[in-house]
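User: Reviewer 2 asked us to show a designed sequence for the structure in our supplementary figure. I'm pasting the structure tokens here. Could you produce the per-position amino acids so we can include them in the response letter?
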């Protein structure tokens, strides 16, 4: 039997560090809720706003797939693999931490805040060689449709993820509609980054999350300046480290 479970934006964990305003969809750092410890292999969605000229200093990760999705502003990335880049709206960054990677993420602007999503997905195996991928998906690639941005095999120009998961991004406004076939054998998670949108008839507002279990398909409609991320996931309830 399929189920839909809505979590409103206002119910998320909150952190105010002055330079960083963060909303946590799942337990993270000082926010812990035993009912919110991830879903399937999705462990973290942090909705972060970083003040001008501020950021996350260099710090390490292991055995995690870490996606950064910029909504507004510009993020400056550096890591121990020698990558240095700017990430702007439309760009996505995926770090496969594997045996170990250290990175920093700063707001590149001295004047404007940066708003981005930091998303962690538990990998299927431990100890992969660390990797970094970055790619731009233009607005027209996502307009009125779901653009595949992460997949296990890098299909259709997506970034390659070390897990049986697929992540899509879409922009919906007005009469634009899309359907994602899941076949009833998978879980899914929908995070609405901004705007409003109906998913299988459930109205979502910015920051809302929707857990979906064993649905045949997802139908997206009635968007108002909506930007959405959709996670097609294994039918597990909670993340388990490999």
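Assistant: Here is a per-position design you can include in the supplement:
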């Amino acid at each position: 039997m399929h189920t839909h479970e809505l979590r409103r934006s206002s119910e998320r964990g909150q952190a105010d560090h002055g330079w960083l305003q963060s909303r946590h969809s799942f337990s993270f750092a000082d926010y812990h809720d035993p009912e919110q410890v991830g879903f399937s292999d999705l462990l973290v969605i942090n909705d972060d706003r970083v003040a001008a000229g501020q950021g996350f200093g260099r710090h390490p990760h292991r055995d995690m797939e870490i996606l950064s999705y910029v909504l507004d502003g510009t993020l400056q990335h550096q890591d121990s693999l020698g990558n240095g880049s700017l990430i702007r709206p439309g760009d996505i960054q995926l770090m496969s931490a594997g045996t170990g990677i250290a990175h920093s993420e700063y707001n590149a602007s001295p004047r404007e805040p940066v708003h981005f999503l930091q998303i962690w997905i538990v990998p299927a195996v431990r100890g992969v060689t660390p990797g970094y991928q970055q790619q731009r998906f233009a607005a027209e690639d996502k307009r009125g449709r779901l653009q595949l941005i992460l997949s296990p095999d890098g299909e259709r120009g997506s970034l390659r993820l070390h897990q049986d998961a697929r992540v899509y991004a879409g922009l919906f406004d007005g009469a634009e509609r899309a359907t994602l076939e899941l076949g009833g054998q998978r879980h899914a998670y929908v995070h609405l980054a901004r705007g409003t949108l109906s998913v299988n008839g459930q109205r979502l507002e910015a920051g809302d999350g929707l857990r979906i279990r064993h649905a045949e398909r997802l139908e997206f409609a009635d968007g108002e300046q909506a930007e959405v991320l959709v996670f097609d996931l294994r039918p597990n309830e909670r993340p388990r480290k490999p």
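For the response letter, you might also mention the following. The chain has one helix and 20 strands. The mean pLDDT is 95.
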